[in-house]
Amino acid sequence: xxxxxxxxxxxxxxxxxxxxxxxxxxxxxxxxxxxxxxxxxxxxxxxxxxxxxxxxxxxxxxxxxxxxxxxxxxxxxxxxxxxxxxxxxxxxxxxxxxxxxxxxxxxxxxxxxxxxxxxxxxxxxxxxxxxxxxxxxxxxxxxxxxxxxxxxxxxxxxxxxxxxxxxxxxxxxxxxxxxxxxxxxxxxxxxxxxxxxxxxxxxxxxxxxxxxxxxxxxxxxxxxxxxxxxxxxxxxxxxxxxxxxxxxxxxxxxxxxxxxxxxxxxxxxxxxxxxxxxxxxxxxxxxxxxxxxxxxxxxxxxxxxxxxxxxxxxxxxxxxxxxxxxxxxxxxxxxxxxxxxxxxxxxxxxxxxxxxxxxxxxxxxxxxxxxxxxxxxxxxxxxxxxxxxxxxxxxxxxxxxxxxxxxxxxxxxxxxxxxxxxxxxxxxxxxxxxxxxxxxxxxxxxxxxxx
Length: 451
Fold this sequence. Notes:
Helices cover 33% and strands 22% of the residues. By secondary structure, it is an alpha/beta fold. The chain is globular, with a radius of gyration of 22 Å.
């Protein structure tokens, strides 16, 4: 695996199965009378925070009856050693991805590295005969998309894209209402996402703020939203016209530094972040930055930042639905507003994930019939990350990969490709000022309905 100088590996890694702990975990998790099934041999490439938590300790704690970690890989040897200890992995560790594929002989590989490295790693894993789980986005440009599609065509292997947003209870309820036909045929949608000054700013401290690594937030972040749109509408995007600008972060400030640590402007910078207050962040990143030059607490005012911090797009789906989309990265609260207009009514929601005045323990949808009543539907929050979506996604991927999926929550290579192709098209449109046809980006032709 090759990473650029100063490139982080912020989303990565995976689980572990300590032989002594497995028996107890299996006894605790399996239903009475159930027959244990052979565990999948699983290897992980990437040891960032997402990796060592969701794809690490969570799997070690809750899924070691289903998976066996046989290899852990990262190009940063210091972070790799810490990740192995943090997760409790007793498996071999590797700084060479190809060597891990040969020696560890995994059945499935989890890719959770810097976005621009996904395509090469996915293709290499498929060519080695492995199935793949990858964090979103699938990749960052159309060349990577086509390479993955070609590799999928060469081999009888599957790709699962970790689009966890599909699994949150309130998003599932939206899906059920739309599918029921309650608001009639959907004709248009308004979708506006707000990242707050904590979460939004974090993207500009890290490698995500450089287009060469993340493909811009039209790809890295908005692919979540574009995937939801395709899943809700059961159609694929056909044309996108977008605009984007860098109006707040980057060079839009009178002072700057390299990092928050030791910054002379700390007392007057609203975005100062003290990494030392998080021992985990120090142990995972700061202690090992000398290996690859990746600075986890980078300056949000860096003039190297070249992505958009505000984005808007008009999207035409192949089934005729028109969508207005926007994303702001410096909002005082976090969440989104979504509205679907149909021939018989309207479904809308204003979902808060953070706000200064507190977040309720439920999400609320409003369902309004044309010429009729308006109804509020409250959906209680579920435990687990991403609105309760993470544990449900893991159950689907690791415990019930072939189980019933009536609402088609599992995302494969085609859905992963369409989500990033829309983001790639939006980025290209924002740069050129011209609309982009999704069919011009790869061998995929958008479908009006899901097959």
